[in-house]
Each structure stands twice: as C-alpha cells, then as structure tokens.
C-alpha cells in the first residue's frame, strides 16, 4: 500500500470516528446534527478529491518522464541500428569487391 493510500485510509478512518463521536455527544437538534454531518462529509469529500488530484498529478509526472525515457531509448536504438547497418553494408561491399576481383581473374 502506498503512502498516499495509507494517508487516504487514515483520513477516512478519522472522519468516520469523528462523525460517530460527534453524533453520540451532540446536544443539538437533529437538523443541526444533520447539517454538521453534511459539512463533515463535504470536508471528507473535498479532502479525498484533493488527494486524488495530487496523486493523479504525481502519476502524470511519472508517466511523462517514463515516456521521455522510452523516446530517448528508442532514438538510441535507432542510432545504434543505423551504425550497425553501415558496418554491414561496408562489409558486404568489401566482400563484393573481393568476389569481383576473383571473378575477373577467372575470366582472363
């Protein structure tokens, strides 16, 4: 479980315990208690929304960096393949020149 998940779980547990204690110890009328509960739930909802947005931003940044790393790795791979291709072409050209020379000797 990540630290963000633990923090969210702790916030939810704290809100639930606080709401339960508040209901048990509330000297107010039912309408006032319901209004306080609604405020408490709204606070929890806003905290969850803020935590979710912060977690989403962290994930976006991590994936953005990963995408850039993949792009860089792909570019390096293409560059290496290009150099290897040049080496293969050079090798084949030298072999072709050797074969032409051998063929020329045979034609004389």
UniProtKB/TrEMBL annotation:
Q: Which Gene3D superfamilies match?
A: Apolipoprotein (1.20.120.20)
Iron-sulfur among the record's keywords? no
Which residues are listed as membrane-spanning? 6-26
* Protein's UniProt keywords contain Thylakoid: no
Q: Which UniProt keywords apply?
A: Membrane, Transmembrane, Transmembrane helix
* Pfam families for this protein: YtxH (PF12732)
Protein's name in the database: YtxH domain-containing protein
């Amino acid at each position: 479980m990540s630290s963000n998940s633990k923090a969210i779980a702790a916030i939810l547990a704290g809100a639930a315990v606080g709401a339960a204690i508040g209901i048990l110890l509330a000297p107010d009328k039912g309408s006032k208690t319901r209004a306080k509960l609604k405020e408490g739930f709204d606070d929890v909802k806003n905290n969850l929304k803020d935590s979710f947005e912060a977690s989403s931003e962290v994930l976006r940044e991590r994936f953005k960096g990963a995408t850039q790393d993949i792009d860089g790795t792909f570019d390096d791979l293409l560059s290496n393949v290009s150099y290897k291709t040049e080496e293969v072409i050079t090798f084949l050209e030298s072999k072709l020149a050797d074969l032409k020379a051998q063929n020329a000797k045979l034609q004389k």
